[in-house]
Amino acid sequence: MTVAEVNVVAQAFHDAVANQDAAALAQLYHEDARFMPPNMPPAEGRPAIQQAMQQLLDMGARSLEIEPLDVRECGDMTIEYGRYALGLEVPTAGAVTDVGKYLVVHETRDDGTTKILFDCFNSNSPLPA
């Protein structure tokens, strides 16, 4: 998977969050993928990933900027490390931007499809005291 292809996936994330489309977000993942957001249990499988994405959207996620910083290929896997800025609309705090880092593993399957297999991210901000 090339850096350009990784950037296409990053743009798809941006667009799906902007459109509040959890189904489109889930389609970026393989059926047996794992999504590991902070402060939530892991979501295993596309239906659980869609549900977790919907929870994030319902919690106020409104925009997402992804910046891949390091992309490495290893056989049928591509490992991507980067940073993100997640725009949130929180009823009690208004507009908030969370900045953090992520690690994503993309996998190309025998049928030629390349989707996300593992996705983990977390904030650079400490938890409130």
Structure description:
This protein has 129 residues and is α+β, with helices and mostly antiparallel strands. The chain has one domain: Nuclear Transport Factor 2, Chain: A (Roll), CATH 3.10.450. It has a 6-stranded mixed sheet, with helices on one face. The protein is globular and about 45 Å long. The chain starts with a helix and ends in a 6-residue tail after the last strand. The model has no long low-confidence stretch (mean pLDDT 93).
What's the N-to-C terminus distance?
41 Å
Name of the level-1 CATH class: Alpha Beta
Number of strands: 6
Q: Return the CATH topology.
A: Nuclear Transport Factor 2, Chain: A
Strand order of the largest sheet: 2-1-6-5-4-3
Helix count equals: 3
CATH architecture: Roll
Global shape: globular
How big is the Rg?
14 Å
Oligomeric grouping of the chains: single chain
Based on secondary structure, the structural category is alpha+beta
Low-confidence stretches: none
Largest sheet descriptor: 6 strands, mixed
What is the strand and helix layout of this fold?
Blueprint: H1 3-18, H2 22-26, E1 29-36, E2 43-44, H3 46-58, E3 61-74, E4 77-90, E5 94-108, E6 114-123
Parallel strand pairs: 1-6
Antiparallel strand pairs: 1-2, 3-4, 4-5, 5-6
Task: List its traits.
129 residues, alpha+beta, Nuclear Transport Factor 2, Chain: A, 3 helices, globular
Compact summary:
The protein has 129 residues and is α+β, with helices and mostly antiparallel strands. It has a single domain, classed as Nuclear Transport Factor 2, Chain: A, CATH 3.10.450.
